[in-house]
Design brief:
Blueprint: H1 2-16, E1 28-34, E2 39-46, E3 53-56, E4 65-67, E5 72-77, E6 85-91, E7 98-105, E8 109-114, H2 118-122, H3 131-139, E9 148-156, E10 159-166, E11 182-187, E12 194-196, H4 199-209, H5 214-221, H6 230-240
Antiparallel strand pairs: 1-2, 1-5, 2-3, 3-4, 5-6, 6-7, 7-8, 8-11, 9-10, 11-12
Helix pairs in contact: 1-3, 4-5
Length: 243
């Protein structure tokens, strides 16, 4: 109890003097692979938009550098985990501009995911609360340190201070998940990604691009497979009918 009150008091004091702001878009460890083959390992931040990339070679580097998204082949984060995440800038059938997308499945047909908020897509699962949001959360939860399962240490005004991390994922600000993801399909040897809007345009894509797989076409026409089953559709095609 005393420990939690101390943290709250310190947060309020420092934030009132403008000395503290937990970064809403943190640097994530990963790789930026450029179109010329250059690989840059370090910290990656998407600043205000997925099309504004900031990069640091190490945590000790004070000033980040800009990377032009047009020079980027792909961005990889979670590189030390079993499930690294890959992001691309791709042309789509929707408009002439590039879209920021995450690769979910690959094969003769690739499956991508996009979002109206490309920062939420990149930082999905990441705690991006600011100081004021942290305090709001702490005020609205039981002042009991047992409600937290671990902690993290940050440097505040030259001192190391432990900030509790919520045990639950359903808090108001933390761990943003994509509520309405948009899925895109890409057939090998085609230039643009196909936006998947409805069951109707799923049938259109299937008849035009996956017609060498009659059983899959039949499953989609009979509504055995629908838009919501897109991951299964892509997997079925790649395993049974892909090149």
């Amino acid at each position: 109890m005393k420990k939690l009150l101390f943290i709250l008091t310190l947060l309020i004091t420092l934030s009132s003097f403008g000395q503290l702001e937990l970064r809403p878009n943190p640097f994530l460890k990963g790789e930026v692979i450029l179109k010329d083959g250059t690989i840059r390992n370090g910290g990656i931040q998407l600043n205000d938009s997925a099309f504004r990339i900031r990069f640091k070679d190490s945590a000790k580097q004070k000033k980040s550098v800009k990377i032009d998204y047009k020079t980027v082949e792909k961005i990889i984060i979670n590189i030390d985990s079993l499930n690294p995440r890959e992001f691309y800038y791709k042309k789509t059938t929707k408009n002439k501009f590039y879209s920021f997308v995450e690769l979910l499945q690959t094969g003769s047909v690739d499956l991508y995911k996009s979002s109206r908020n490309n920062l939420n897509l990149f930082y999905e699962g990441i705690d991006r609360r600011t100081t004021l949001e942290w305090m709001s959360h702490l005020r609205n939860t039981s002042p009991d340190i047992a409600n937290f399962d671990n902690s993290r240490t940050v440097k505040l005004n030259g001192q190391n201070v432990i900030l509790p991390t919520p045990a639950r994922r359903n808090t108001q600000f933390a761990y943003i998940e994509i509520e309405f993801p948009v899925y895109l399909l890409h057939k090998k040897n085609t230039k643009k990604l196909f936006f998947l809007y409805s069951n109707k345009n799923l049938k259109e894509f299937t008849l035009e691009n996956l017609n060498n797989c009659p059983k899959l076409v039949e499953k989609i026409q009979s509504k055995e497979f629908r838009k919501r089953d897109i991951a299964e559709i892509v997997e079925y095609y790649n395993e049974n009918c892909g090149e």
